[in-house]
Amino acid sequence: MTSILFQDFKERSKEVSKYFFFLKNLEQGTIKLAMEGNGKQKIKEIDSELIKTLKASTFLLLYNLVESTMRNAIEAIFDELQSQGIPFDKIRPELKKIVLHNLKRRNPDKVFQKIVDISLDIIKAGFNKEELFSGNIDAQKIKTTAKEYGFSAKTKTDSSDLLTVKDNRNDLAHGIKSFAEVGKEKSADELIEIKNKVVKYLRQILENIEIYIDNQEYLDSTNIP
Questions:
Q1: How many domains does the chain have?
Q2: Which end of the chain has fewer CB atoms within 10 angstroms, the N or the C?
Q3: Residues 1-40: pLDDT tens digits?
Q4: pTM (2 decimals)?
Q5: What is the DSSP string of the chain?
């Protein structure tokens, strides 16, 4: 399960890195526009305002990586519980609260259709990955989530850039700032540094979740002989 999780993270990170590589070459002028017309090709410099817009878009890409990574990671925990056939009374208290909270948000008629063995099916019946995060995820939110589920949020990487990513993403998504405003603040090298830190931080969080799953830390320790 977790190997699939890391594989997805690796692929998404690679997609993001390709964009940043393109952006750096664009800023350095090693990439130019080739305009075709009347059978002739004309090389044109990239407009500086367009470069700002492309720079600002990096925050949308990075936020997408952060949210999708954490959403998939939490889903992996629930998938593991289901695949291992872990009943409700065996999971740790923190998870029991989450399961009950999820159920409160569901239509009883729809939940009823999903339950055959209540002790097993109740865990996944109320789960909806689309509701996990909604434009609100940064390092503090990840730490809160880690506490709620019982996995470690300790890393060796500075996580402050996740707040920068979230704030810029929200400013763009809600029209608070224009792409040109956001894009003018960072150079391509500075953006690449932010990207590297974010990717490194997320990788360490996934490693923590892998340990959590492999060691079955989702179980209630008071029930373990």
A1: 1
A2: C
A3: 457 889 999 999 999 999 999 999 888 888 777 777 777 7
A4: 0.90
A5: -HHHHHHHHHHHHHHHHHHHHHHHHHHHTSS-EEEEETTEEEEEPPPHHHHHHHHHHHHHHHHHHHHHHHHHHHHHHHHHHHHTT--GGGB-HHHHHHHHHHHHTS-HHHHHHH-SSHHHHHHHHT--GGGS-SS--SHHHHHHHHHHHT-----SS--THHHHHHHHHHHHHTTSS-HHHHHTT--HHHHHHHHHHHHHHHHHHHHHHHHHHHTTTTB-GGG--
